[in-house]
Write a structure and sequence with these properties.
Layout lengths: L1 H14 L3 H19 L6 E6 L1 H4 L6 E2 L2 E2 L2 E13 L5 H13 L7 E3 L4 E8 L2 E12 L2 H7 L13 E5 L6 E5 L1 H26 L10 H25 L8 H11 L9 H13 L25 E3 L2 E3 L1 E2 L2 E5 L2 H5 L1 H23 L2 H11 L28
Parallel strand pairs: 4-7
Antiparallel strand pairs: 1-4, 2-3, 5-6, 6-7, 7-8, 8-9, 10-11, 12-13
Helix pairs in contact: 1-12, 6-7, 7-8, 7-9, 7-11, 9-11, 11-12
């Protein structure tokens, strides 16, 4: 099991960004946003959202290979809210700024964002999604307060312009609040782990793990799930894979009930055991929660009146499983993925060491470390359809 854990750690290193690559992404979006800020008529606060912000990003996998890496950046106009400007005017301000900049030939416009592509460097290609936004108005914030799990985070809500075809509207989002929620969840896990370590002395020391090491155990499990998801859905020829925010939210919510452990294998096993229970909901169409002692997933994902619900912890108006309600095949494919994950765990316990490692690397679509493959293994690409990328 120790060797298996070591192999898993090596795999996480392969699918993760290096410190150099991550810093390049930060430098790229910082310079891009500062360029835009210098040309628009309002103050801007820019910050990453999604997997880059939660430090759970992995090298995207699509069409059988690694591809271009996306960084999503919120550009929030802080001096106004959505009652003081219309969606198209906000979009046009950013469009004009890009047209006047050195990036005028590098960007593509979508309904909710602008994508700027950068050339490959340090064995990685980047594209940056610039997402214009303004502060959400007080009326919307007041409506969200009573229906959001963490009302103290609602004040960070923003409005994103959506200019799809002839329709223009605002979309409520709360990426900054979501990141704060997720950081709280990793801290809960870290504190539980340190408490367990002091009790059992499993690390042969009463010293607490450094914050980064303790939290990385949870982050690594999310990265593992995301990469195996990408590979599984590609091999299944399915476009129904769950979004990253679904995986991050479920694991984040589970953080307070998972048994603290320094082993990613053990923690991954616990998460998969929880995920397995979701399929029972499909056989209880009118049940609000699954009645299953010991499985906290039943308080995270519910199914009532044939509707799946996973609430965004920072935005009560956002059901992260709406797509499952629109297409039941998405739920079915999710169950198939979880079953495949369980099968991987079983095979890892039953086969020889060589077969275990081979199976593990194949699940991540990676070459074995001993392979003398001169072909470059890692260049990057978009791993999922972006909801703000519609023409």
């Amino acid at each position: 099991m120790v060797k298996l854990r070591e192999q898993l750690e090596k795999i996480v290193e392969k699918i993760d960004l290096t410190a150099t690559q991550r810093q390049r992404a930060i430098d790229l979006y910082t310079h891009l946003c500062e360029t835009i800020e210098g040309s628009v008529p309002f103050d801007i606060n820019f910050y990453p959202q999604g997997s880059f912000a939660t430090k759970t990003a992995v090298r995207p996998y699509k069409n059988g290979k690694d591809h271009l890496y996306d960084v999503d950046v919120i550009c929030e106009a802080t001096s106004i809210d959505k009652t003081q400007i219309n969606p198209e005017r906000l979009k046009s301000a950013f469009r004009d700024a890009l047209n006047k900049s050195r990036y005028s030939k590098q960007y593509q416009e979508w309904d909710k964002c602008f994508t700027v592509k950068f050339e490959e460097k340090d064995e990685i290609d980047f594209s940056i999604d610039i997402i214009p936004s303004v502060k959400e108005d007080e009326q919307t914030i007041n409506e969200l307060l009573p229906i959001t799990q963490n009302p103290d985070l609602v004040g960070y809500s923003i409005a994103i312009p959506s200019t799809f075809k002839s329709s223009t509207t605002w979309i409520t989002n709360n990426p900054k609040g979501y990141v704060q929620w997720f950081e709280r969840q990793t801290l809960i896990f870290k504190e539980a782990l340190n408490t367990e370590n002091r009790k059992s002395q499993i690390l042969n020391s009463i010293e607490e793990l450094p914050d980064e090491d303790a939290q990385n155990i949870l982050l690594n499990v999310i990265k593992i799930l995301k990469r195996t998801r990408d590979v599984f859905y590609y091999r299944r020829y399915s476009e129904n894979k769950p979004s990253s925010i679904v995986i991050i939210t479920v694991v984040g919510e589970l953080a307070k009930s998972l048994r603290p452990t320094v082993s990613e294998v053990d923690l991954l096993t616990q998460v998969i055991e929880q995920l397995k229970q979701i399929q029972t909901y499909a056989n209880k169409e009118n049940s609000e929660f699954m009645v299953a002692s010991g499985f906290s997933i039943s308080s995270i994902i519910s199914r009532k009146n044939n509707k799946w619900v996973l609430a965004n912890p920072a935005n009560g108006g956002d059901n992260l499983l709406n797509s499952w309600n629109e297409d039941n095949n998405k739920a079915k494919d999710f169950f198939a993925w979880v079953k495949d994950l369980q099968g991987i765990l079983v095979s890892l316990n039953e086969t020889t060491e060589y077969e275990r490692v081979t199976k593990l690397y194949d699940s991540f679509a990676l070459s074995m470390p001993s392979s003398n493959n001169s072909k470059k293994q890692f260049s990057l690409s978009d791993n999922s359809a972006k909801p703000w990328r519609s023409r």
